[in-house]
Amino acid sequence: RQSHSARGLRGCLVLAIRGTMSAGDALTDLRCDSASLSSNLSSGIRNQSVHRGMWESAVRMDGKLRHVVEEALGPGGTCEGFSLRIVGHSLGAGVASLLTLRWHELVPLFRQHAVHCHAFGPPCVLGPVAAAATSHYITSVVVGDDAVCRWSLGSTKEVLQAAAVLAQEPGAMCRLVKMAVASMAPAQTVGQARSLAQPAYSAAAAMSTAADTEWSAHLLRSLETTLAAANTPKLLPAGRILWFSHPLSRAVTPTTTAPASSPQAPLRSCAAASLVPHTTYCLLYT
Hints:
Blueprint: E1 12-17, H1 23-30, E2 34-36, E3 49-51, H2 52-73, E4 83-89, H3 91-106, H4 108-112, E5 116-120, H5 128-133, E6 138-143, H6 153-167, H7 172-184, H8 187-193, H9 203-206, H10 210-230, E7 240-245, E8 267-270, E9 279-284
Parallel strand pairs: 1-4, 4-5, 5-6, 6-7, 7-9
Antiparallel strand pairs: 2-3, 8-9
Helix pairs in contact: 1-2, 2-3, 6-10
């Protein structure tokens, strides 16, 4: 893309990769076991865990597109002097991240043209070490509690481990339902529920007590201890993560303040717990 017709002005060559559309794409998503990154990559990345299906897709795309992009960016090419941006969403974001990793590591011409990936709603594709090592040339954008950006085979195993702990806890299901109903139901709904003849799901049963709160805190500590001991390997989104969330959904404190009319007002970075260390937490004001 050129912003002006004059070819001598600097522009940006954009490669966009779509998300899941076909059954074959879905199979790529589901090939979620881990492979190892090539041994010819840099020391912080080589032999690290990677999403198998998306890595293989990135390798195939590399074989089809590398020479085309090299010709476009090289001397005399139609995009000579342009920077290189790779963008994608969902499955496309995962493949774009891994393709960017390959090209940044293996193609000096693309590094010279400042190759950078912008991944929107990215799946978990890299182990923690490799994910952090790519933070200067991959930016992942996560909105709210998007499960795609948190799910991996390792997290599925953790869910199963947590379910096994809950199955051994007497009355766990009833208590969790009570606490969930109490936290979500509007006041008028709770009042109406008092007339129901189902004790387990009545408003009285739904009201979360101090004992329930203490029990849930104890259960959470037990789950954390169990999962920490299991130390199940998990994948993460690649690169630097920008995590956007509505201010009412989390109790966080902005690190900066800005007048409502200022350009910075819609987006403020926050000092809050992050998904991973290379995450910037942001608030969306709408």
